[in-house]
Amino acid sequence: MLIMAKPLICSDLWQVWQIIGWVLWIFKIVIPIIIIIFGMIDLGKAVVASKDDEIKKSVKSLAMRAVAGIVIFFIPTLVGVIFRVVDDFAADDIQGQYGVCSTCITDPGDCETAANNYSGNQTGNESGNESGNEG
To answer: Is the distance from CB of 97 to CB of 118 less than 8 angstroms?
Structure first.
């Protein structure tokens, strides 16, 4: 009989991780579009003004925005890799737990399936261990 079960951060709270994954997914699309639009506007203003200093400033600003956009685009992937590395070093009883977090962050559409698969594996392992101890 279980008196108090250990809370599992990733599989028990998969809905929260899925929302975070969807937010990051939207950011991956919206922020590069905004960067392109603002860069085009700034560069267009500088070209219309025909001032070399303004053109250089706007090109430099566009480059910095592009770097920021690339970094933002790869944040979910980086977080997913970190969760996978942590999962590799996790104890045997929670092995695969952080893989659920990784899936929820990088592919929020498959989050529920990953959480259910992890929960199903854990339930199967617990019942297998109990039957093995009784025999």
So the answer is: yes
Domain boundaries, the chain: 20-123
Compute the distance between CA of residue 59 and CA of residue 72 in angstroms, rounded to an integer. 20
pTM: 0.66
Q: Are 100 and 14 in contact (CB under 8 A)?
A: yes
DSSP symbol at 90: S
Tens digits of residue pLDDT in 109-124: 888 888 888 766 655 5
Picking from 6, 15, 4, the residue whose alpha carbon sits closest to that of residue 100 is 15
Cβ-contact 102, 84 below 8 angstroms = yes
With tokens 């590395």, the residue in question is 85
- How many Cβ atoms sit within 10 Å of the Cβ of residue 118? 23
